[in-house]
Backbone:
């Protein structure tokens, strides 16, 4: 059989529309979305509240079904990709099980996937360290701050080795210093693992710092207004944010957001 893994896109949307039927009438959350994300890319979705960023991520994750058009994930339908455990999902809210410890929450997908006990422990310790929660493994979610809970939920999505990581504003609730650090760590992790990351954010610097591709969206109805292929090198110290190249891309994102808003 021909191996299509190297050539097929991680995420491909074609003429995708999604209309929600609500008590107040139809809401077009996504309109004519066409997008290809290659394997190993870091794509950010940025746009004002209500432009359909979360809905698009939910379509990728088979949590919403398009009204028309298509979405493929690793060459499969989103539903088949979900069954193949093609992605880990980090939600806006941490969504940890209150009756499990932090370690128990992070370990859960590994238990479900049948990893050997020793590897579960090793991976859990490693990802908790990565999100600066070493030593909190035996605590319960309610014993941690909201930001720490969110870091635990990131650790959970990182623990099991899906090729695609879907992240819906994972750092939105964190203070800026922690967020900078997690941005650096996420980029390092992306570099090491070659995962495809789809990341929703409201922050222009975050989108520009992290991404190989920035998808600018505009609301009512949610459309893609610009797709920027980043010319920044893969190696990105935080200081890159002060360079003219970085500022130029940030400017283009801002223009795209304003144009979408005016429309
Ligand atoms: N289940 C639903 N039923 C009806 N309308 C919905 C549903 N989910 C989302 N919408 C609407 O679809 C549009 C897009 O919502 P979505 O949550 O995807 O936006 P967003 O860009 O992620 O916003 P935010 O940045 O605030 O999270 C909004 O107008 C929202 O009210």
Residues:
């Amino acid at each position: 059989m021909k191996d299509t893994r190297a050539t097929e896109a991680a995420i491909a949307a074609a003429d995708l529309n999604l209309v929600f039927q609500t008590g107040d009438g139809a809401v077009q959350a996504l309109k004519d979305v066409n997008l290809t994300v290659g394997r190993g890319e870091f794509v950010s979705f940025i746009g004002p509240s209500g432009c359909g960023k979360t809905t698009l991520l939910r379509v990728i994750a088979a949590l919403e079904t398009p009204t028309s058009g298509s979405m493929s994930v690793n060459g499969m339908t989103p539903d088949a990709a979900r069954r193949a455990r093609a992605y880990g999902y980090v939600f806006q809210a941490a969504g940890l099980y209150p009756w499990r410890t932090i370690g128990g929450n992070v370990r859960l997908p590994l238990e479900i996937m049948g990893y050997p006990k020793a590897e579960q422990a090793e991976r859990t310790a490693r990802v908790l360290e990565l999100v600066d929660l070493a030593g909190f493994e035996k605590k319960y979610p309610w014993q941690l701050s909201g930001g720490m809970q969110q870091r635990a939920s990131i650790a959970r999505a990182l623990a099991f080795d899906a090729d695609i990581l879907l992240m819906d504003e994972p750092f939105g609730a964190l203070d800026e210093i922690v967020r900078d650090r997690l941005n650096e760590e996420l980029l390092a992790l992306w570099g090491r693992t070659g995962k495809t990351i789809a990341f929703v954010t409201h922050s222009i610097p975050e989108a520009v710092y992290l991404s190989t591709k920035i998808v600018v969206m505009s609301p009512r109805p949610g459309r893609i207004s610009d797709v920027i292929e980043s010319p920044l090198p893969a190696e990105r110290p935080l200081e890159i944010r002060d360079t003219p190249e970085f500022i130029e891309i940030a400017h283009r994102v801002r223009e795209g957001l304003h144009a979408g808003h005016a429309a």
Notes: Residues 20, 22, 27, 29, 47, 49-55, 222 surround adenosine-5'-triphosphate (CB under 6 Å).
